[in-house]
Amino acid sequence: MFFGLGWLAARVDIRHLLTESRALPASYFKGLNFLLNEQPDKAIEALIEVARADQQTVELHFALGSLFRRRGEVDRATRMHQNLVDRSDLGSSQRTAALHELAQDYLKAGLLDRAEALFQDLRKTEFSESALRYLLEIYVTEKDWQKAIETAEALEVATGNSYRSEVANFHCERAAMEYSHSRLEEAHAQIAAALEAHRKCVRANVMLGNWAQREGRHEEAVAIWKRIEGQAPEYLFLIAAPLIESARKLGQTPEALTLLRGWQQRYPALDLLGVVFQATLEEEGAESALRLVREELYRNPSLGALDKFLDAQLATATPDQRADVQMMRDLVHAHSSRLSLFQCGSCGFKARTFHWHCPACGGWDTYPPRRNAEGELSQAGSNRSGM
Q: Domains in the chain, please, with CATH?
């Protein structure tokens, strides 16, 4: 009896499947065949025929619209999604989904005002979180930092994730804008807001010290930059060169050099070593600079430290040694320059200079404060010792 019932149920399912497959147009199967054969252009045309023949295929319209947008055919995507929005037989949830897709089309096309208006409306729907993320992208693109701050704070509430770093950076961006327009009081207020939003916002103290130095308040600038050691000492390389410059103005170069050497021992960094090496070379001569980098090379072996060591050796080499040292230095320097890059921890984009905002993925504070060449020799040494 059970066998008979199973056989009967299977026959019913097969008949239902055959009925549905006959109802589907041939273009549907043709489109699937093209997709399987990696012919997306022909697949799209075939699926468009299906969509024209059967206006009830709403999900197919959504799929085609998204495919058009990913391929860069924004006009076709916009028309597809606009047609869905205009349909009177569409349910409320499907219409909301169509508006969400249409807003993304506008954003992709660069029609930011239209995209913003739709995403604002979508904040009251199930697409609220997605709409906030896209709105944040729009405001950063438009450099509307106040709206970016408000949106990031709304995202914190909506998602439960921290956006403190982003909010602090937005305050810094606004501070830089106010300072460029000589609105100093508002600029300093924004820096204070950045530090309140994120206590470890190194960028705020870097900017504050730079402004003090520019206005001739060198002692205050040095005092501000020293705060970074208590925030995130790995970023001290950012203020090493201007700190030496302000110390020279104050007649305190030896004290500044002692401070920087202490930082280099406690928080070794290639860029910091470069500043200390150059300042030592100018103030104390080549022999002292050579001792400095030799000690650093033994303490923290790296390609960058070796490059600086050969620089110092070149400055102290005898005429007979100079050609050989120059050749080695040029080889190491070329390799070091090729590898000494900052790399975004989010998208992997590499840059020669440090960025607070990744030019590729748009992430904030995604660049670690170390170059790729740092630690290369020490890593290679540890690998050899483990073999």
A: 64-86+93-159 (1.25.40.10), 224-387 (1.25.40)
